What does this fold into?
Amino acid sequence: MLPDTFHTARLKLRLIEPKDAGPIFDSYAQDATVTRFVIWRPHQSRSVQLIEIDRLGDEFERAKLAGTAAALVVAMGEVVEGVK
It folds into this structure.
């Protein structure tokens, strides 16, 4: 079974949460330059980002039960670090 978080000396990986929608959307999810390298198109709004976060949360729970890989976010403190 997978843990909800992973910690290293420098990083914390944790399950994505609804509070991450704003920072993720603002930093890269709506940016076509960034999203051309991933399997999804740019998100058009924070509400679309929230829907995606809910989907990923459900996916994580299924993966956790199955003992397989899942999407996590890299977090520093309580804020998701943006990529820009």
Observations:
- The chain has three helices and four strands.
